[in-house]
Amino acid sequence: MSKRPFLFLPLILSILFLQGIFAASESEAKILVLYKERDPDHAGIISILTPLLKQAGYDFDTRDVEELLVKKPDMESYTGIMTCYQTSQMVGGDIYPQWLVEQMEAGRRILIIGSYGAYQGVIPKPDGTFVERSETTRTINTFFHPFGLEFHFAFTSDNNKLRLVTADKEYSQFQAPITQKDLRYYQLYTSVNPENKIFFELERTDMTASRSALNVITPFGGMVLEGYSYFWDPEKNKTVFRVNFPEFIKEAFSARSHVPSDEESEKEKSKELIGREIVKKQKVLQKADVKEEVMEMDLVKSMDAGKKEEVRYDKKGEEEKKVISDGSHVSSDEEIEKEKSKELTGREIMEKQKVLQKADDEIEIMQMKLIKGKDVRKREVVRYNKKGEEENDKIMIMFLEPRDVEGTGVLTWEHKDRSDDQWLYLPARRRETRISGSSKKNLFMGTDFSFGDLRSEKLSLYDYERLSDKKRGGRDCFVVKAVPNTEKEEKDSGYGARILWIRKGTFFTEKIRYYDTTYDPKKKKNKVLKFCVYSNVVNPEGHFWRATKTRMKNLKRKHETILLVKDRKLNSGISGDKLTLRQLKKGPD
Fold first, then answer.
1. What are the C-alpha distances in Å from 571 to residues 358, 384, 386, 389, 574?
2. Are residues 517 and 494 in contact, defined by beta-carbon separation less than 8 angstroms?
3. Which of 144, 200, 145 is nearest to 170 (CA)?
4. What pLDDT sits at residue 307?
5. How many CA atoms lie within 13 A of 413 on its CB side?
């Protein structure tokens, strides 16, 4: 499809924008602030950004964009639109770019702060589930071409691949300088309008023609992408702004349109050619990435006869499978233990597992992969666990990267005789939120683990039944069914039952199946909600057995989360001060 029609859009937009200027002078300028209800901290972001609009002299309304795209309200009272999104998914992501173009054609300027927000479309299904799909660059550029930019998928958060090109003092280093260590987010936005004012640019050292305008004023508004607008400074206990937002907002919403000359039009055409070169380069890079993550298959028999479950290993799989093979060998002492275990009840198996596999304290640094079809998002997290008396453990999980989730964490204080305390901390809100019991079945930060899954096994809340023993991958396993013993726990957890495969001799949990609250023990088959497989097993301290790979697959969402342990320390002497609300707010050391 030719991009030639876009060259005439600035002329049309110029006329309409001039009409918008005169209309704005006759009535009070009002901005529509768009957010997404699905974003984890939309309220916190709005509370930070909307006072800046007031400071710049603008009145405003706020609205959920996904609701707006369905209802399409009257926009006559608004002279501009400011978007503030965290995530890349949007219901209506395929029609959103055209809607933005219609707003520009009506004379409204667009200011993007944070994520563009519609890189992926979300399609609701009749059964209440959702299907996600990546939007094409053509769809996304329906908006960005007339806006003055050209988008290409070239994301990286690898600091070593980024180089700073431009960093304006007022509009990108207003209250804090930008250094190399701050370069943690990159998308490719090529400037295609000569009237654009670029305040912050990065380029990739592993790509040609990769200069990207991440903080820019165009004739039709402006954009400041995530990671380079503001951040929370725990030492100063305040939000630090990289952009002088009141002045930036004024300039973005008073930007004048420009009719490109013939010479400038030729420049735009040449940049289209550069864009095609970038796409070609990206395809080469993507193939290289696929080669780096060569996957091997290991088929393991599941509980249902004739069915098989796929477990994947990365390029080091050969060595890891050898570790697994060695780890599954049962010593003579363990063979004796297996003989003794023949008479154990379901609860006794769980009690013995807790005694044998629980360290006094534990620290794990893990790479997290969130997978939906071919889309893979990567995170890095750290997990702290401190053993308490009886069932009073303390657990803290914190995100280390990428920048948009860095410092986000959850702290759990377990209690034997009452409900656990659990808090979620989001840096942008600068305060913790207590997770109520009814919210513990909710998923944690887009993963397939619920808040309840983040705590250790709480024996007092479940009845355990030993089922028939099974072999799994040639290894003898106990099979134990865990059912909540109170209606409250069933409601809070969202599970009607779980089935656990526990290796004999070592008492290591290999797999867990989760069933929702419709679980009926009288039925021969119940629908599985999700399952978790623990693999690549190692034996770090003689009797502790640990997985270096955990895979949680949500069958309802058609989504999975993989955790790969990069580093682990057992019994290192973690202080109790490490797992407090104060430390949660401070972030990892």
1. 10, 11, 9, 16, 8
2. yes
3. 200
4. 33
5. 12
* Nearest Cα residue to 222 out of 304, 122, 298, 116: 116
Express the helix, strand and coil content of the chain in percent, nearest 5 each: 30, 35, 35
Instruction: With CA atoms as reference, report the closest residue to 548 among 298, 378, 313.
Output: 313
Q: What mean pLDDT value characterizes the chain?
A: 79
Which among 579, 507, 567 has a CA at the least distance from the CA of 543? 507
Is 299 exposed, middle or buried (CB count within 10 Å of its CB: 0-12, 13-18, 19+)?
exposed
Q: Which of the 8 DSSP states describes residue 381?
A: E
In Å, how far are 509, 545, 571 from 356, measured between CA atoms? 12, 9, 14
pTM of the model: 0.46
Q: What whole-number distance in Å separates Cα of residue 209 and Cα of residue 562? A: 34
The full set of domain ranges for the chain reads 4-290, 296-586
Fold type of domain 296-586: outer membrane lipoprotein receptor (LolB), chain A (2.50.20)
ω into residue 246 within 30 of 0, thus cis?
no
Q: Can you list the residues of the chain whose pLDDT is less than 50?
A: 1-27, 256-333, 335-336, 338-339
Helix (H) and strand (E) counts for the chain?
Answer: 13, 31
Q: Are 268 and 193 in contact (CB under 8 A)?
A: yes
